[in-house]
Amino acid sequence: MPGPKHSVLKRIMPQLLILAAALALNVLVFPDFFDIDFRNGRLFGSLIDVLNRGAPVAILCIGMTLVIATRGIDLSVGAVMAIAGATSAAVVTDGHGWGTALLAGLCAGALCGLWNGVLVAVLKIQPIVATLVLMVAGRGVAQLITEGKILTFSNEGLIHLGAGTIAGVPTPILIWMALGALVILVVRRTALGMLIESIGINERSSRLAGINSRVLLVCVYLVSGLCAALAGVIVAADIKGADANNAGLWLELDAILAVVIGGNSLLGGRFSILASLLGALIIQSVNSVILLSGMPPEFNLVIKALLILAILVIQSPRITYLMYMLRASGPQPQPDTDPLSNSPKEEAR
Amino acid sequence: MIRSTHLPLLVTLATFILAYALCVYAYPSMLSTRVVANLLTDNAFLGIAAVGMTFVILSGGIDLSIGSVIAFTGVFLAVILRDTSVHPLIAFMLVLTITTAFGAAMGGLIHYLEMPPFIVTLAGMFLARGAAYVLSTESVPITHEFYDVLQGLYWKAPSGGRFRLIGGVMVLTFLVGVLVAHRTRFGQNVYALGGGGQTAKLMGSPIASTTVGIYAISGGLAGLAGIVFSLYTSAGYSLATVGVELDAIAAVVIGGTLLTGGYGYVAGTFFGILIMGLIQTYIVFDGTLSSWWTKIVIGGLLFAFIVLQKGLTWATQARRRAATGFADPS
Question: Fewest CB atoms less than 10 Å from the CB: which of A95, A233, A291, B30?
Answer without folding.
Answer: A95
